[in-house]
Design a protein that fits this description.
single chain, about 60 residues, three-stranded antiparallel sheet, 3 strands, DUF397, DUF397 domain-containing protein
């Protein structure tokens, strides 16, 4: 199934395209995977869960340093 998904990375990841999270739309949700292990596991999130996560990242909730 993951072979048919349209995976994308953030435009902010251009300097390190193999060191990020890739996401794909799943109709009403989002799938996410590690770009360094594309054959590994895929996590699924509802649209609301993903939107909440993105808002938290933008709001500085997580230490991204």
């Amino acid at each position: 199934m993951t072979e048919r998904m349209q995976w994308r990375t953030s435009s902010y990841s251009t300097d390190h395209p193999n060191n990020c999270v890739e996401v794909a739309a799943l109709g009403v949700g989002v799938a996410a995977r590690d770009s360094r292990d594309r054959a590994g596991g895929v996590l699924g999130f509802s649209g609301a869960q993903w939107a909440s996560f993105v808002d938290d990242v933008k709001g500085g909730v997580y230490d991204l340093a």
